[in-house]
Amino acid sequence: MTRLRAEDLTLAYEKRVVAERLGVQIPDGSFTVIVGPNACGKSTLLRALARLLRPREGTVYLDGDPIGALAPKRLARRLGLLPQSPLTPEGITVGDLVARGRYPHQSLLRQWSREDEAAVTEAMEAVGVTGLADRVVDELSGGQRQRVRLALVLAQRTGILLLDEPTTYLDIAHQIEVLDLCARLHEEGRTLVAVLHDLNHACRYATHLIAMRGGEVLAEGPPAEIVTAELVERVFGLPCRVIADPETATPLIVPAGRRRTLTAENL
Ligand SMILES: Nc1ncnc2c1ncn2[C@@H]1O[C@H](COP(=O)(O)OP(=O)(O)O)[C@@H](O)[C@H]1O
Ligand SMILES: [Mg+2]
Q1: Cα of 13 from ligand 1 centre, angstroms
Q2: Given 3.40.190.10, 1.10.150.670, 3.40.1160.10, 3.40.50.300, which CATH number is that of 1-78+158-237?
Q3: Cβ neighbours of residue 70 closer than 8 Å, sequence gap 6 or more
Q4: Ligand 1 near 18 CB (within 6 A)
Q5: CB distance 251 to 245 below 8 Å
């Protein structure tokens, strides 16, 4: 049994059906990465897994229970989501936004505590935004904002984290920093599900890769076992070569050049 799984999902917005009979199982303790072309349904799937989108058919299960039956705070203590385009309350400061991650842990009887304070401090340190605590979120750069949003989800201290394009808007150094942070969270025992656009990053960091196209899962498994030039062509329509990443030996996708592939004959 896996903590988070979905069976027979039909996902749709009004008349647009994004996926039918879609099933996924997120291996416990995995760093699962979802890849696939634009508009194939990655965010839609993540939103269904986080109960932001109600499936037209099928069920998402968390710890064996249909997710629809869980009280909102209970769900938010077990599973956190970083949406692709989160809305931020106007004029809110970084510190106040990150503190909102503690809301699911509070109640009338249990108000702001030392544990809440520690969770917020730790989350802000983890993504390097401690110095921004008093700044207004709207006035930050895209990269800073993205890290603050990540801190908000981390402060929730959930065992499962769903991250929709956590590295978007970040320069390459900050992308790696965020992915290394994700890898650390994974090593500490959390289950991560991230949507990433960079296939090479996906291959480096994922323990379990899910390749989607047109609302379907075309392949899943450890990157080294499933990523081939044929798969990349089938998923993205991109001719490429797959070689070993010189740094990590994981699959490295090299898109074919515009002219012709260099071979022994035409070198
Ligand atoms: N709120 C919405 N209303 C209507 N259609 C939507 C909405 N959100 C996404 N879609 C459509 O659903 C499809 C899948 O979108 P999405 O899951 O966001 O793709 P991805 O994250 O893989 O790029 C796309 O065709 C998109 O236009
Ligand atoms: Mg998306």
Answers
A1: 8
A2: 3.40.50.300
A3: 51, 62
A4: yes
A5: yes
Q: State in Å: Cα 216 to ligand 2 middle.
A: 15
Per the confidence metrics, is the pTM higher than 0.85? yes
What is the atom index within ligand 1 of the atom nearest the CA of 215? 14
Residue 130's Cβ-count burial label (10 Å; 0-12, 13-18, 19+) is middle
Q: How far apart are CA 184 and CA 258, in angstroms?
A: 38
Q: Mutate which of 44, 52, 210 to test ligand 1's pocket (most atoms within 8 Å of Cβ)?
A: 44
- Ligand 1 atom closest to the CA of 46, numbered from 1: 17
112 CB near ligand 1 (under 6 Å): no
The amino acid sitting at 128 is: G
The atom number, within ligand 1, closest to the CA of 41 reads: 17
Ordered per-residue pLDDT tens for the chain, 267 residues: 799 999 999 999 999 999 999 999 999 999 999 999 999 999 999 999 999 999 999 999 999 999 999 999 999 999 999 999 888 899 999 999 999 999 998 877 778 889 999 999 999 999 999 999 999 999 999 889 999 999 999 999 999 999 999 998 889 998 998 999 999 999 999 999 999 999 999 999 999 999 999 999 999 999 999 999 999 999 999 999 999 999 999 999 999 988 665 666 655
